[in-house]
Specification:
Protein name: Hemin ABC transporter substrate-binding protein
Radius of gyration: 20 Å
Strand content: 5-15%
CATH topology of the largest domain: Rossmann fold
Largest sheet: 6 strands, mixed
CATH class of the largest domain: Alpha Beta
Shape: globular
Keywords: Coiled coil, Signal
CATH architecture of the largest domain: 3-Layer(aba) Sandwich
CATH superfamily of the largest domain: Nitrogenase molybdenum iron protein domain
Number of helices: 13
Helix content: 25-40%
Number of domains: 2
InterPro entries: ABC_Transporter_SBP, ABC_transptr_periplasmic_BD
Order of helices and strands: HEHEHEHEHHEEHEEHEHHHEHH
Length: about 300
């Protein structure tokens, strides 16, 4: 028996044909697509579409939401953003949806959508600003500065970025003397009893590290189904789950009903932490608060000692 379950295959051709996928692969960390990339200030920021929840959140935090005419489906914070036209899920966005609102520019987080979609938008000569993302503390102020430069509000962005840096440093200082770092298993889903968990190079992995803990799974990048053997071997002290609402006690009971989860230190102690997905994993202006909240839930009175 292998340590990790097989990754499920995706009907890639159908996926591309039906949805053209979206802007979420506009630029991968390996630099997959170039499009009408703009470095620095946008030539015309009067009608901007934001792709990525952190990008939208940053624009609102800067007080520059007046530029926005559209946002992707993940951009639901702040609540006012939900009143903007939704151009689709960032990984399954149609060019028609973007073009229909006549944008003058697109600001997209790094890692955004397949070349097929970009080629269509490229022909429309829509400038893009690609904002780097590597799920580290440094990436958050870097994103703020990049968005500020794109919109021509560098001074505002610098002020916000500097405050975020201070807040991140405070969160780091709170956990620097923790002697026994918690091992955390981030569970993305547990449908049908199958545990889908985070490995490395994910927002979950990044936020766990920033909260002064260790990811219990380091054998693979991204998200993958785990076998019972892998869960038990991981020996997590904490199970971290995205809060999707509903009856938490019932959801926790379902997790603990998994024999492998129940056999771990986290399962035996019933140590399950639930936090809002975008709040926890967004890597935007709210990240320092989310980091501190997660650290508090894991370490309690040990913080700051």
């Amino acid at each position: 028996m292998t340590m990790f379950a097989k990754r499920q295959s995706k009907p890639a051709r159908l996926y591309l044909a039906v949805s053209l996928a979206g802007l979420m692969a506009l630029l991968t960390p390996n630099g997959m697509a170039s499009a009408e990339e703009v470095t620095g200030r946008l030539p015309d920021a009067s009608r901007v579409v934001s792709i990525g929840d952190s990008i939208t959140e940053i624009i609102y935090a800067l007080g520059e939401e007046g530029h926005l005419v559209g946002r992707d489906q993940t951009s639901t914070y702040p609540q006012a953003a939900q009143k903007l036209p939704d151009v689709g899920y960032m990984r399954a966005l149609s060019p028609e949806g973007v073009l229909s609102i006549n944008p003058t520019a697109i600001i997209a987080v790094e890692g955004s959508g397949p070349k097929e979609t970009i080629d269509v938008l490229k022909k429309a000569s829509i400038p893009f600003v690609f904002v780097p993302e590597d799920y580290t503390g440094k990436s958050i102020p870097a994103k703020i500065r990049a968005v500020g430069t794109a919109l021509g509000v560098d001074e505002k962005a610098e002020k916000l970025a500097s405050q975020i840096e201070k807040d991140l440093q405070a969160a780091e200082d709170a956990t620097k003397n923790i002697k026994n770092r918690k091992r955390v298993l981030f569970v993305l889903s547990a449908q049908g009893g199958k545990i889908m968990a985070s490995g490395t190079r994910t927002a979950a992995n990044g936020i766990i590290a920033l909260a002064g803990a260790d990811n219990a799974i380091t054998e693979y990048p991204g998200y993958k189904p785990l076998t019972d053997e892998a869960i038990i071997t991981a020996k997590p002290d904490v199970i971290l789950v995205m809060d999707r609402g509903g009856d938490h006690s019932s959801n926790n009971a379902d997790l603990l009903a998994n024999a492998a989860i129940a056999a771990t230190p986290a399962g035996k102690d019933k140590k399950i932490i639930r936090m809002g997905g975008q709040y926890l994993l967004g890597f935007g202006p709210r990240a320092p608060k989310a980091i501190h909240e997660l650290a508090q839930a894991m370490y309690g009175n040990e913080l700051g000692k």
